[in-house]
Automatic annotation (TrEMBL):
Domain spans labelled Ketoreductase: 8-192
Species per Swiss-Prot/TrEMBL record: Kitasatospora xanthocidica
Matches recorded under InterPro entries: KR_dom, NAD(P)-bd_dom_sf, SDR_fam
Keywords, ordered alphabetically: Oxidoreductase
Segments crossing the lipid bilayer: none
GO molecular function terms noted in the UniProt entry: oxidoreductase activity
Protein name, UniProt field: 3-oxoacyl-ACP reductase FabG
Similarity comment: Belongs to the short-chain dehydrogenases/reductases (SDR) family.
């Protein structure tokens, strides 16, 4: 299989549900052993890990708060200690706090930036010490970073826009070592946090060119391409999987 990840090890943050779970399962289908982090919902995380193991890969769920720098470092070290390598990092874990800028608290700001910006930076820094030729980093951004179509997204949009700079800088710094770094911008995706049948769904649906929500599997397919052989010459790129939200 051209895009096989056989024998490789992938770390997917926030992999217990939604887009993260879909990515973890797809990378396992592609042949990778997958470590997924979670903060809450241990049962769901273990279910994803069990599905990966059932495919004949190794699935490992590790509890880690992305807002804790020591936890971030510890996860990467644990992966390398157990498997002896790390080939793919997918920075998916994130939090969303929406609302008028005047209503946002300092605690809101700190939490969102810690999880959505600092954690991807720290995971990438820790992983870069172990990634070798052919290594991959994929950050999960948001369509909000490309088009803010409604009010109340100041903080969330700030955090996701920061990943553009991080990704391009990583691509430039790690490129000489044969490591790529790319950014995927999901649009409205049908998950338990933002269901296609939820109260805010119709407005989001109307903002897309395709007139529908996407699926976690569709985002995972984009990640699969970027970390596979087909993505070897793609780095520093932003790939929108948003149904035309930013068109």
């Amino acid at each position: 299989m051209l895009d096989s990840l056989d024998g490789k090890v992938a770390l997917v943050t926030g992999g217990s549900r939604g887009i993260g779970a879909a990515v973890a399962l797809r990378l396992a289908e592609d042949g990778a052993h997958v470590v997924l982090t979670y903060q809450g919902g241990a049962e769901r995380a273990e279910e994803v890990a069990a599905k990966i193991t059932a495919m004949g890969r190794t699935g490992w769920a590790v509890r880690a708060d992305s807002a804790d720098p020591e936890a971030v470092r510890g996860v990467v070290e644990a992966v390398v200690e157990r498997f002896g390598r790390l080939d793919v990092l997918v920075n998916n874990a994130g939090v969303g706090v929406l609302g008028p800028i005047g209503d946002l608290t300092l605690e809101d700001v700190d939490r969102v930036l810690e999880v959505n910006v600092r954690a991807p930076f720290l995971y990438a820094r820790a992983a870069s010490a172990h990634l070798t030729e052919g290594g991959r980093i994929v950050n999960l951004g948001s369509c909000i970073a490309q088009r803010v179509a409604f009010p109340g997204a100041t903080l969330y949009g700030t955090s996701k826009a920061a990943l553009i700079g991080l990704t391009k800088a990583l691509a430039r710094e790690l490129g000489p070592r044969g490591i790529t770094a790319n950014l995927v911008h999901p649009g409205p995706i049908d998950t338990d946090m933002n269901p296609a049948g939820g109260p805010a769904a119709e407005g989001q649906r109307e903002l897309t060119a395709l007139g529908r929500f996407g699926t976690g599997a569709e985002v995972a397919a984009a990640v699969s391409y970027l970390v596979g052989e087909g993505g070897r010459y793609v780095t520093g790129a932003e790939l929108a999987v948003d149904g035309g939200f930013a068109a």
